[in-house]
Amino acid sequence: MFQSIHSYIARSVQLSPAEIAIVNENLEYRLVPKKTILLAANNVCNFEAYVVKGCIREYFIDPDGVELTLEFAVEDWWVSDITSFEHQTNSKMYIETLEDCELLMLSRESKERLLQEVPKLERMFRLMIQRHLSVVQNRLFKSVSYSAMDKYLEFVKRYPSIPQRVPQHYIASYLGITPEFLSKLRTRQFKKVL
């Protein structure tokens, strides 16, 4: 259960066996069924979760009641509302499991304890935030400068497993297009491949 997060950590820092034991002690393993709301808007996010297995969606609901997908998280990714978690403010988003999930959870208290006991992990979390910011900036750039087809092709290239795992209307929501238009794009792309 901890092997994948140990590998994740090892890509940033090397920990001693004693430090790895501290990591394990501070993580809470949770099995979460499909369609569970981990965080609802107007609540404070009290976790950062590492995805051992499963798929999760982050989304918000616009003033017209339309769900807009912000991000997907699959194996070896982290999920949270960073702003709400760090500042203890109400979230504007929802975090929902799309598959049965195995998660390793950190509360604010366990994360603080972990960083005090294993200061090396500050580097891992810093690198993780930097990568996340880079992804968000890239997504913002592409959302204003790419065509719908280019956004779809980039999505499939970057996240090849997700189209087989999540309903197409969530992908359309992520891309900022209607499900019908996504279907047309996929048909057009399929015909090109043939």
From TrEMBL:
Residues 32-117 form the Cyclic nucleotide-binding domain. InterPro entries: cNMP-bd_dom, cNMP-bd_dom_sf, RmlC-like_jellyroll. It holds the Pfam family cNMP_binding. This is CRP-like cAMP-binding protein. It comes from Pedobacter cryoconitis.
